[in-house]
Amino acid sequence: MNRPRRNFRALDRILAMRWLELRVPPLFVWVVFAGAMFGVARLVPTPTFKLPGASVYAIALVVLGAAVALVGVVAFRRAGTTVNPITPSAAGIVVSGGIYRFTRNPMYLGFLVALAGWAIQLSNVAAALLLPAFVAYMTRFQIKPEEQALAAKFGPQFMQYRSRVRRWV
Questions:
Q1: How far is CA 150 from the centre of its chain?
Q2: Using only C-alpha atoms, what is the Rg of the chain?
Q3: Half-sphere exposure of 77 toward its Cβ, with a 13 Å CA cutoff?
Q4: I want to staple 111 with a disulfide (CB 3.0 to 4.6 A). Which of 3, 12, 30, 39 is the partner?
Q5: Are the beta carbons of 77 and 161 closer than 8 angstroms?
Q6: What is the percentage of the chain residues whose pLDDT exceeds 70?
Q7: pLDDT digits over 126-139, tens only?
Q8: Are the CB atoms for 54 and 120 separated by under 8 Å?
Q9: Is the four-CA dihedral 102, 20, 126, 30 of positive or negative sign?
């Protein structure tokens, strides 16, 4: 008798997790992670790392990340397709040129690179450990659902692109 109840609880968790798919704008996710990294750095002040010229590296990574994300947006605009990450099914074309020859997700990669710069600025190991969590969240709740929508809409064209170009780098 307890067994069916456990199955319903597991199903509830799965449905709750699926509810997050394509719901939270990636820029908002980035802001939340940046804030969480700051909070973790304050709450867990050690262990830290000291990198000579950390601010220069941090600024360089933030600028690089912003540039990578912006190049991705520009490529979408030039192709005349949507940049709205909440509605990937509204895409009008599979963009595979320019930066999209190297990564399927330059906007999210740019966010990650900028967060890496923030981690260097914070010089806190605990804050830096949130970077893989960002990748995991974005992959599970944004990228994979986007890929499913694009595969459903563009079929073999998207599948061929997906087989040629890596998800992150």
A1: 17
A2: 18
A3: 7
A4: 30
A5: no
A6: 92
A7: 999 999 999 999 99
A8: yes
A9: positive
70: its two tokens: 């912006």
Copy the structure tokens of residue 154.
């563009």
Q: Which residue is listed with tokens 């599970």? A: 140
Both structure tokens of 23: 């719901």
Closest CA to 33 of 145, 124, 127: 127
Q: Provide the residue type at 146 as one letter.
A: E
Q: What is the pLDDT of residues 33-82, one digit of tens each?
A: 999 999 999 999 888 988 999 999 999 999 999 999 999 999 999 999 99
Tokens describing residue 75: 């490529």
Residues 111-121 as b/e (b if ≥16 CB within 10 A, e otherwise) read: bbbbbbbbbbb
The model's pTM is 0.90
